[in-house]
Write a structure and sequence with these properties.
The chain has helices at about 5-20, 20-35, 55-60, 65, 80-85, 100-105, 150-160, 175-185, 195-200, 230-235, 235-255, 255-265, 270-275, 285-295, 300-315, 330-335; strands at about 40-45, 70-75, 95, 110-120, 125-130, 140-145, 170-175, 190-195, 210, 220-225, 280-285. It is an alpha/beta fold and about 350 residues long. The chain folds into two domains: about 5-120 and about 220-335, 3-Layer(aba) Sandwich (D-Maltodextrin-Binding Protein, domain 2), CATH 3.40.190; about 125-215, 3-Layer(aba) Sandwich (D-Maltodextrin-Binding Protein, domain 2). The strands form two sheets. It has a six-stranded mixed sheet, sandwiched between helices. The longest helix is centred in the C-terminal third of the chain and has 20 residues, at about 235-255. The protein is globular.
């Protein structure tokens, strides 16, 4: 699942960009940079999040081929590894959260967001044991969370809303799957986790979700990010990927049962369990993409949300350097999607 310790990501990025320099970074990316629709193969990464499983459907139903994309779809068991792979140029694109992309960019990675896959609308959760009934009740309690990960961000948002800070709890840094297991085993009082690890945590008797991403609309957008130089040199490829995504969403709508079966299998869950994730992840339509890319002053607009995330990351010490937002968002491709 989405699992990326901030420290490990920054180390990988800084090693690629600062320590070894531009030459090493270019060498790292040279094997994948020469890609195009129907040309050399490119590598697209994704990991276990409901909003990214449609890529598996695209591959199995030949929708990449339909759009003349020669692609290696690379599934990462560890979201951490997928983030690092894009940051260092080992892959050409990846599906990832906005705050994780901003963390990578602040470390020197050159990435461009060309598509919004989804928004988390409940599948990220802060879960507590029996007897803890509010965020305020977490004061002094042990809370397991993966530092720098999206649910660390969610925890900080929830604490701020309760007029608290991270200093008011005993933060227990732990990989998300291990954190959910530790909570289930009674080793900590609360946990920040996303699906399906959230369900693992909720299997502890008496446990409950104190806060979810549904309470912070627009705070956790997930998207497709490509290497910035690839977007510039191969715009036809970027367009083909975006077209494939919307072809896939249409195919899923028209073949719901088969699509759910494919996505559940990729996620290692049953069809029944996967269906329960639906409401917690909102797949964006083309119009929602167009609206999100349009500059605005509400959380529904990517530029506004990005600035909010940057301000928050700086104020909480998640990053020491504010990333530049110049060129981060490119709406060219969602604007050019053929209207069906």
């Amino acid at each position: 699942m989405r699992s990326r310790p901030y420290g490990r990501l920054m180390t990988a990025v800084l090693c690629a960009v600062s320590l070894f320099g531009v030459t090493a970074l270019s060498a790292c990316s040279s094997s994948t940079a020469s890609a195009g629709g129907g040309g050399d193969k490119i590598t697209l990464g994704f990991s276990a999040w409901p909003g990214w499983f449609p890529w598996q459907v695209a591959e199995e139903q030949g929708l990449f081929k339909k759009n003349n994309v020669n692609i290696e779809l690379k599934y990462f068991d560890s979201y951490t590894d997928s983030i690092n792979a894009l940051s260092t140029g080992a892959i050409d694109g990846n599906s990832q959260t906005l705050n994780d992309t901003l963390a990578a960019v602040s470390g020197g990675a050159k990435e461009t967001i060309i598509l919004v896959n989804d928004n988390s609308t409940g599948n990220d959760k802060i879960i507590a044991r029996d007897g803890i009934n509010s965020i305020a009740d977490l004061k002094g309690k042990k809370v397991a969370v993966e530092q720098g990960l999206v649910d660390h961000y969610l925890l900080l948002l929830a604490l701020r809303e309760a007029n608290m800070t991270e200093k008011d709890v005993q933060l227990v840094p732990m990989e998300t799957g291990a954190a959910a297991a530790a909570f289930k085993g009674g080793q900590v009082d609360a946990v920040g986790a996303f699906q399906p690890f959230a369900d693992t945590a909720l299997s502890r008797q008496g446990s409950k979700a104190l806060a979810t991403s549904a309470e912070f609309p627009g705070a956790i957008p997930d998207h497709l990010a490509l290497k910035a130089d690839l977007v510039k040199s191969k715009p036809q490829l970027a367009q083909a990927l975006v077209n494939t995504w919307f072809d896939t969403i249409k195919w899923i709508k028209d073949n719901k049962d088969k699509a759910t079966e494919i996505m559940a299998k990729r996620g290692g869950s049953t069809v029944e369990a996967y269906k329960a994730f639906d409401s917690g992840t909102t797949i964006f339509t083309l119009q929602q993409n167009l609206d999100a890319f349009t500059p605005g002053t509400t959380p529904e607009h990517l530029n506004h949300q990005a600035q909010s995330v940057v301000d928050f990351m700086m104020s909480t010490g998640l990053t020491q350097k504010a990333p530049s937002l110049d060129g981060l968002f490119d709406d060219t491709f969602v604007k050019a999607v053929p209207k069906s």
